[in-house]
């Protein structure tokens, strides 16, 4: 997705540890027009799948997930990293190691929001080692919900997540694919071919 790649080039900052900081438009300040374009692209890619629900994890997955849900007129469900006191006992959960925070979170979903009749599109901001997406796949399995695909805004293709997800037979689409951060510069997969 050209405009996302251009925005990454313009505003992205490569940090140590292969972390891309995109606080200008996605991870802190959010550009709603760009999020809407991302949502439209996910609808182009997955819109025919009779999706009933979008699933993401708080907090940075919510913006692209929300726009996709708005365009498809389906609810957006986000996994909570801390169990809320208003949550009853009946929950699905998965342990997710956070790439950026280096801690393990227990991601929780109230079970009444996900069931065997759901056709789920999983959305997240980044794909690195695939921990977050694997956690969401696990939650869908617990709910016996069908996953129709995974939509990622920014995939770091040089890390193992994409292979890990595709090897499970899951339809994965990423809008910007990063091949490397060599010399602190973002190199996209298409550019390096
Ligand atoms: P994974 O679970 O695939 O290893 O990592 C994906 C999750 O970690 C995403 O939900 C995202 O929040 C965070 N993450 C991974 N890599 C990056 C990165 O380079 N930049 C930012 N901002 N977040 C990342």
From TrEMBL:
GO molecular function ontology, one term from the record: xanthine phosphoribosyltransferase activity
The entry's keywords: Cytoplasm, Glycosyltransferase, Purine salvage, Transferase
Known EC number: 2.4.2.22
Phosphoribosyltransferase domain boundaries: 44-168
PANTHER family: HYPOXANTHINE/GUANINE PHOSPHORIBOSYLTRANSFERASE, XANTHINE PHOSPHORIBOSYLTRANSFERASE
Function statement: Converts the preformed base xanthine, a product of nucleic acid breakdown, to xanthosine 5'-monophosphate (XMP), so it can be reused for RNA or DNA synthesis.
Protein name: Xanthine phosphoribosyltransferase
Organism: Liquorilactobacillus vini DSM 20605
């Amino acid at each position: 997705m050209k405009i996302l790649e251009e925005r990454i080039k313009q505003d992205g900052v490569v940090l140590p540890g292969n972390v891309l900081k995109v606080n200008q438009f996605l991870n802190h300040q959010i550009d709603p027009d760009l999020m809407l374009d991302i949502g439209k692209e996910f609808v182009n890619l997955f819109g025919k799948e009779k999706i009933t629900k979008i699933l993401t994890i708080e907090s940075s997955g919510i913006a692209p997930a929300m726009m996709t849900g708005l365009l498809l007129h389906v609810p957006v469900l986000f996994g909570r990293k801390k169990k809320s006191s208003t949550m009853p006992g009946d929950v699905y959960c998965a342990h997710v190691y956070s790439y950026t925070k280096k801690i393990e979170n227990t991601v929780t979903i109230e079970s009444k929001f996900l069931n065997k009749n759901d056709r789920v599109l999983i959305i997240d901001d980044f794909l690195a080692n695939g921990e977050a997406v694997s956690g969401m796949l696990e939650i869908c399995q617990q709910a016996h919900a069908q996953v129709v695909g995974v939509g990622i805004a920014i995939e770091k293709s040089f890390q193992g997540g994409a292979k890990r997800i595709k090897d499970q037979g899951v339809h994965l689409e990423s809008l910007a694919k990063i091949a490397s951060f060599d010399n602190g510069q973002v190199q996209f997969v298409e550019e390096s071919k």
